[in-house]
Amino acid sequence: MRVCFLRPAIRFIERSVYSAIICAFLIASAFAQPAAQFAKANQEYGGGHFKEAIDAYEGLVRSGEWSVNLFYDLGNAYFRAGDLGRAILNYERALALDPRHPETEANLRIVRDEARALELTPSAPERFLTFASLNNYAIAAATAFWVGVFCLAALIFARRRSRGTVAVAILSLAIFALAMAAISWINNGNKGRALAIVTSDGVEARLATADTANSVLALPPGSEIRILSRRGDWIYGALPNNLRGWIPAKGAEQVRL
Fold first, then answer.
1. CB 247 within 8 A of CB 118
2. How many domains does the chain have?
3. What is the pTM of this model?
């Protein structure tokens, strides 16, 4: 009788083990496929086949496999292919993930100089806040928030209030507020979510949504704009030199995906 009772348990354990093995295999395969595609793209780049490398890198971008190295390598491929606007776009995307990536910063300066791209002027708070990324501020805000919540809970339920706990709660909530303010400044500033890069040749900002409207500013490929609004096939944006104007939507791509 014991054997009869044990057999279903043994079958259940065997099925669980098999299911775990299959899940592990599927997860490993899911990670292996992007790695293999990235390696293939690097191989194409190393062989001087820049168009094929770009296609492979862009496939990874479309699948959501974003990383600093992916955008950096894609920027290099566009640069070698002579597409300076999209090279700058992808260097900017890499720096949006890691503002302190030295190779990307160096290459971006080189390509900007070659393209004569125009840049937006960041505000003083933006310049000060660039020592950390949005992810860093988000982690700091989340950590400070929960530390503050736990401290407040401890103060509510404790019989005697500790000055140290009160101080930690106040400090945590202050850090949370400052981190959230930093995130807001970065997201809404010239280098925030609305930042776009001109990727087409011959783009001119105009006073109205018509190709015959007066020109405000010629924007070489790689120039920065901050999108303020959209109307049909046109984008209204803040431009370098403290100007504003309309440009064709197909002439620029947003940095943040």
1. no
2. 3
3. 0.74
Do residues 61 and 77 make contact, with C-beta atoms less than 8 angstroms apart?
Answer: no
> Which domain does 221 fall in, by range?
195-254
Last residue of a domain, one of 149, 166, 188: 188
Say what the pLDDT of residue 61 is.
92
User: With contact defined as beta carbons under 8 Å apart, do 137 and 186 qualify?
Assistant: yes
For residues 145 and 109, membership in a common domain is answered with no
Please list the residues that pair with 248 across neighbouring strands: 234
The CA distance from 194 to 24, in Å, is 40
Each residue's pLDDT tens digit, 3-25: 454 455 455 555 554 554 554 44
Between CA 139 and CA 134 the distance in angstroms is 9
Query: d(Cα 6, Cα 19) in Å, to the nearest integer?
Result: 20
- Say if residues 202 and 182 touch (Cβ distance below 8 Å): no
Q: What ranges in the chain are assigned the alpha helix state H?
A: 2-46, 50-62, 68-81, 84-97, 102-115, 124-129, 134-157, 163-188
- Give the amino acid at 233: D
Last residue of a domain, one of 167, 188, 209: 188
Residue 225, beta-bridge partner list: 196
The verdict on residue 17 lying in a domain is no
Contacts of residue 104, defined as CB under 8 A and 6 or more positions apart, other chains included, come to 68, 71, 72, 75, 91, 94, 95, 98
